[in-house]
Amino acid sequence: MTQIPFIGYHCEGFPPVENALTEPNGLLVAGGDLTPERLIEAYSKGIFPWFEDDQPILWWSPAPRAVLYPAEFTPSRSLKKTLRKKTFTITFDTAFQEVISSCSKPRPSGDGTWITADMMDAYTQLHQLGYAHSVEAWDGKELVGGLYGICLGSIFFGESMFSTKSDASKVAFCSLVEHCNLKNIDLIDCQVANPHLASLGAVDICRTTFKKHLQALIPDKLALDRHKGFWSTYSN
Predict the structure, then answer these.
(1) CATH number for the domain including 51?
(2) What span, in angstroms and rounded, lies between the C-alpha atoms of 193 and 64?
(3) Which of 174, 194, 215, 221 has minimal CB crowding within 10 Å?
């Protein structure tokens, strides 16, 4: 693997995202920590952590970037049928720890194990501070799907989703999009495209366009109070 700089050794903070490798796509820098200040700085610059237990903290900023514009979202015909059935009850920020824990569990595809205990602790702290949020899908009293991410300014940075019943995570995502439209959240960052995200309407944009979105939609001084209680009043 090509050598990358380490925070605290080669550099004091994050280098320009243009320095990110093309292979593996987006790997930018290693080291640092998972404090709220570091994470908020990272996301505001289009950078996110992704690593495994036996690795140092690795920070990424891939290009192209997968995003979804809530105002342009249209669910598929089959998903519309599922939504009309109202099979699931949707809540926001009522079970954050349960959602992130479920997202961390190994899956048949092999995805999910990158959410380490340190990552769960870090994002739970961000949740307590009012930055990280969850969407939950319930079948009766059973949590059967959901997602979590970070909201800064008018961007929701999606991190992970899970589902134990068909379409549960898709319904949770649709509810997130609906809420974003109600609250003037203009962009959902999906990080890297995959077939599931593409089926929900995610598209790839270049790094230059993504940086313009970050500059336009995240204020220089983040207003934490804007997001306290922002999601918890919603239920469906």
Answers:
(1) 3.30.70.3550
(2) 9
(3) 221
